[in-house]
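hey
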Protein backbone atom coordinates (compact mmCIF):
# COMPACT_ATOMS: atom_id res chain seq x y z
CA UNK A 1 0.00 0.00 0.00
CA UNK A 2 1.33 3.42 -0.89
CA UNK A 3 -1.21 6.01 0.34
CA UNK A 4 -4.83 6.80 1.15
CA UNK A 5 -6.31 8.12 -2.08
CA UNK A 6 -9.72 9.44 -0.99
CA UNK A 7 -11.75 10.19 2.12
CA UNK A 8 -15.52 10.63 1.67
CA UNK A 9 -17.40 13.61 3.07
CA UNK A 10 -21.19 13.30 2.96
CA UNK A 11 -22.68 16.64 1.87
CA UNK A 12 -26.15 18.07 1.17
CA UNK A 13 -25.40 19.30 -2.34
CA UNK A 14 -22.56 18.77 -4.81
CA UNK A 15 -22.38 22.31 -6.17
CA UNK A 16 -22.54 24.02 -2.77
CA UNK A 17 -19.77 21.71 -1.50
CA UNK A 18 -17.62 22.28 -4.60
CA UNK A 19 -17.95 26.04 -4.15
CA UNK A 20 -16.90 25.82 -0.49
CA UNK A 21 -13.89 23.59 -1.02
CA UNK A 22 -12.66 25.18 -4.26
CA UNK A 23 -13.62 28.85 -4.00
CA UNK A 24 -13.51 29.30 -0.22
CA UNK A 25 -10.74 26.93 0.88
CA UNK A 26 -8.72 26.99 -2.34
CA UNK A 27 -8.74 23.25 -3.04
CA UNK A 28 -8.43 21.92 -6.59
CA UNK A 29 -11.42 20.34 -8.32
CA UNK A 30 -9.83 17.10 -9.50
CA UNK A 31 -12.89 15.39 -10.98
CA UNK A 32 -16.60 16.04 -11.47
CA UNK A 33 -18.02 13.23 -13.59
CA UNK A 34 -21.39 11.54 -14.06
CA UNK A 35 -21.63 8.21 -12.25
CA UNK A 36 -24.26 5.77 -10.99
CA UNK A 37 -25.32 4.44 -7.61
CA UNK A 38 -25.02 0.71 -6.98
CA UNK A 39 -28.68 0.37 -7.99
CA UNK A 40 -28.25 2.35 -11.23
CA UNK A 41 -29.47 5.84 -10.31
CA UNK A 42 -27.46 8.83 -11.55
CA UNK A 43 -25.02 10.60 -9.23
CA UNK A 44 -21.72 12.45 -9.60
CA UNK A 45 -18.16 11.48 -8.76
CA UNK A 46 -16.72 14.68 -7.29
CA UNK A 47 -13.15 14.83 -5.96
CA UNK A 48 -11.36 17.84 -4.47
CA UNK A 49 -7.97 18.11 -2.79
CA UNK A 50 -5.60 20.70 -1.42
CA UNK A 51 -3.09 21.90 -4.01
CA UNK A 52 -0.14 19.53 -4.13
CA UNK A 53 -1.75 16.93 -1.86
CA UNK A 54 -1.92 13.26 -2.70
CA UNK A 55 -5.08 12.45 -0.75
CA UNK A 56 -8.36 13.89 -1.98
CA UNK A 57 -11.90 14.17 -0.67
CA UNK A 58 -14.82 12.49 -2.39
CA UNK A 59 -17.81 14.81 -1.98
CA UNK A 60 -20.70 12.36 -1.68
CA UNK A 61 -24.18 13.87 -1.86
CA UNK A 62 -26.42 12.28 0.78
CA UNK A 63 -28.76 9.68 -0.66
CA UNK A 64 -31.56 8.69 1.71
CA UNK A 65 -32.38 9.28 5.36
CA UNK A 66 -29.43 7.40 6.86
CA UNK A 67 -26.90 9.37 4.84
CA UNK A 68 -28.71 12.68 5.38
CA UNK A 69 -28.52 12.03 9.14
CA UNK A 70 -24.70 12.01 9.07
CA UNK A 71 -24.24 15.26 7.13
CA UNK A 72 -22.17 17.41 9.47
CA UNK A 73 -21.96 14.66 12.09
CA UNK A 74 -19.50 12.24 10.54
CA UNK A 75 -17.31 12.43 13.64
CA UNK A 76 -20.00 12.88 16.31
CA UNK A 77 -18.98 16.49 16.99
CA UNK A 78 -15.24 15.83 17.18
CA UNK A 79 -12.67 17.24 14.81
CA UNK A 80 -12.34 14.71 12.01
CA UNK A 81 -10.16 16.50 9.46
CA UNK A 82 -6.84 18.30 9.87
CA UNK A 83 -5.72 20.87 7.31
CA UNK A 84 -2.01 21.78 7.56
CA UNK A 85 -0.90 25.15 6.15
CA UNK A 86 2.52 26.78 5.92
CA UNK A 87 1.34 30.28 6.91
CA UNK A 88 -1.31 29.93 9.61
CA UNK A 89 -2.09 33.64 10.04
CA UNK A 90 -2.54 34.26 6.31
CA UNK A 91 -4.73 31.17 5.87
CA UNK A 92 -6.83 32.04 8.93
CA UNK A 93 -7.39 35.63 7.74
CA UNK A 94 -8.21 34.53 4.18
CA UNK A 95 -10.68 31.90 5.38
CA UNK A 96 -12.33 34.18 7.94
CA UNK A 97 -12.66 36.93 5.31
CA UNK A 98 -14.28 34.37 2.98
CA UNK A 99 -16.93 33.61 5.60
CA UNK A 100 -15.62 30.33 7.02
CA UNK A 101 -17.11 29.70 10.47
CA UNK A 102 -14.44 29.28 13.13
CA UNK A 103 -15.69 27.75 16.38
CA UNK A 104 -12.49 28.52 18.32
CA UNK A 105 -10.09 31.41 18.26
CA UNK A 106 -6.51 30.72 17.19
CA UNK A 107 -4.28 29.31 19.90
CA UNK A 108 -0.82 27.80 20.20
CA UNK A 109 -0.43 24.15 21.17
CA UNK A 110 2.78 22.08 21.44
CA UNK A 111 2.23 20.91 17.84
CA UNK A 112 1.64 24.40 16.40
CA UNK A 113 -1.04 27.04 15.79
CA UNK A 114 -4.62 25.80 15.74
CA UNK A 115 -8.18 26.99 15.13
CA UNK A 116 -11.25 24.80 14.63
CA UNK A 117 -13.56 25.57 11.70
CA UNK A 118 -16.67 24.09 10.13
CA UNK A 119 -16.91 22.86 6.57
CA UNK A 120 -19.98 23.40 4.38
CA UNK A 121 -21.64 20.31 5.88
CA UNK A 122 -20.88 21.28 9.48
CA UNK A 123 -17.97 18.88 10.13
CA UNK A 124 -15.19 20.17 12.36
CA UNK A 125 -11.69 20.66 10.98
CA UNK A 126 -8.45 21.78 12.62
CA UNK A 127 -6.58 24.47 10.71
CA UNK A 128 -2.98 23.74 11.71
CA UNK A 129 0.17 25.75 11.16
CA UNK A 130 3.65 26.11 12.54
CA UNK A 131 3.95 27.46 16.09
Amino acid sequence: MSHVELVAIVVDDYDTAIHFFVETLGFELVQDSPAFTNDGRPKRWVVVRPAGAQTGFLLAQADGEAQQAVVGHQFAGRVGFFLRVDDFEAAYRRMADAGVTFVTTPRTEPYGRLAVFLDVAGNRWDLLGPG
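The domain at 1-71 is CATH 3.10.180.10 (2,3-Dihydroxybiphenyl 1,2-Dioxygenase; domain 1). The CA atoms of residues 77 and 124 lie 7 Å apart.
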